[in-house]
Design goal:
This protein is mainly alpha-helical and 431 residues long. It is built from 17 helices and 5 strands.
Length: 431
């Protein structure tokens, strides 16, 4: 089975590469990545594309096809092939591989043959399937043109290539256009009380704290506090360096450092939005300072890099900056497991939505106080939008609007309830 391997070049560039089952790089995919993706796309974006191309190779395996060989002979995808790829893109890769593994088995064990053990192939969202089709179309169009560029291609062949690409794109599943309840990022997110609860769980002195060791407990508590108080993404927090903390003016800076040479992690956490400076409380800065000067400083192998949050467990990664997988599997999941009924819907990005929800509440409080006090300036809608964009690193107002949906919905519900109560009271008096 093909796998993705991340290389780190001497200049710090992260280069994701697709490796065949025999451990050699896939020639055509590597050519495509180098020519088309590498100049403009980030490591994570390239990895996502490689995942889509692995899914295409799974289609070839299931259908006993080799598209490269077919393209060399000027045999292009038929309409039936396009429909088959479209339907294939709607299926979950892991679920499909498990099905393929079972179907290839020559020996059927009676317990596993029971219908009670039958697992249906899971599907993916229309948006995900649509993205798959787009990347597959781009890859196949690139490959076929490279394969045939040194051949004399007549007009009909050129037309066939264009038609194949257009057919793939026109048959993409219709994704959600960002409207309706399904597009609301808060519709299935954890409620505000869940975030309050998890912050209580990860406090160093909490009896429910699932972590071991003073260093680890303090580190994890501070990470959650930074997420809650700044709205920073998890990757931005893992990428924080000591110089990003202003210990005098109480602020944290989010700095873009893609392909940093000093970062030993193959999957480098990076900032996805604009650089920004976020004011924080003096208490949080003091806690960061305490962790850096005492706990981190006592981890001698951490002195070889500037990243703040490090691994304190003895072993191969001792003193190194913690990875994204460590954060998910050893920090976030254990905390959620303490109270899964309430916390199971909490995600890393959910803290960003919760930060904006709390920001809306604070702005409402300021505006309420300004009504009875001329010395307090109210915050109008335009100013609120600018504040939200500055704190989150956004350049688009449409992005900012999506993070305020929960608060807007609450206000709309409140107004509707007041209106209903008003008319109900009026009707009762009239009766």
């Amino acid at each position: 089975m093909a796998q993705i391997k991340n290389l780190i070049f001497s200049n710090g560039e992260r280069y994701p590469m697709l490796m065949d089952s025999d451990g050699t790089p896939d020639y055509w995919v590597t050519l495509y990545v180098t020519e088309k993706l590498r100049p403009s796309q980030t490591q994570s974006a390239i990895i996502n594309t490689l995942g889509h191309l692995i899914h295409l190779k799974l289609w070839e395996e299931i259908n006993n096809r080799n598209l490269i060989e077919e393209f060399v002979e000027s045999k292009f995808l038929s309409n039936e092939d396009v429909y088959s790829i479209r339907d294939h893109c709607m299926l979950d890769s892991r679920s499909l591989r498990n099905w393929l593994k079972r179907s290839k088995s020559n020996v059927v064990k009676f317990p596993s043959a029971s219908t009670a053990n039958f697992m249906p192939i899971q599907s993916v969202s229309s948006n995900h399937a649509s993205n798959r089709m787009s990347h597959i179309a781009s890859y196949l169009d690139f490959i076929v043109r490279v394969l045939l560029k040194n051949k004399l291609v007549n007009e009909s062949v050129s037309t066939s290539i264009t038609n194949m690409n257009n057919s793939l794109l026109s048959n993409k599943p219709k994704g959600n256009k960002g409207k309706g309840l399904a597009a609301d990022p808060n519709s299935k997110s954890a409620p505000p009380e869940a975030f309050s609860r998890i912050l209580e769980i990860v406090k160093e002195d909490s009896p429910d704290n699932p972590f071991k060791g003073i260093d680890v407990k303090l580190r994890n508590a501070i990470i959650f506090e930074v997420m809650n108080n700044t709205g920073m993404r998890a990757g931005e927090i893992l990428a924080l360096q000591i110089d990003d903390i202003d210990f005098y003016d109480n602020a944290i800076s989010v700095v873009r450092r893609h392909d940093a040479v000093e970062d030993p992690r193959k999957m480098q956490p990076v900032a996805k939005t604009r650089e920004r400076r976020i004011p924080v409380s003096a208490t949080l800065v003091e806690r960061l300072k305490s962790y850096i000067m005492e706990n981190r400083a006592a981890t001698d192998k951490a002195k070889g890099h500037p990243y703040i949050f490090v691994t304190h467990k003895r072993g191969n990664y001792y003193g190194k900056p913690i990875s994204n997988s460590t954060f998910v599997n050893r920090i976030l999941k254990p905390a959620i497991a303490v109270s899964p009924d309430l916390l199971e819907e909490i995600t890393r990005h959910g803290f960003r939505h919760n930060f904006n929800y709390n920001l809306s509440k604070r702005i409402d409080a300021i505006n309420a106080a300004a009504k009875g006090n001329s010395s307090i300036d109210s915050i109008n809608e335009k100013k609120e939008m600018q504040i939200r964009k500055d704190l989150n690193g956004w350049s688009s107002e449409s992005t900012a609007e999506g993070y305020n949906l929960r608060h807007i919905r609450e206000e709309a519900d409140r107004v509707m309830r007041e209106d209903i109560e008003h008319w109900s009271e009026f009707i009762h008096k009239d009766a």
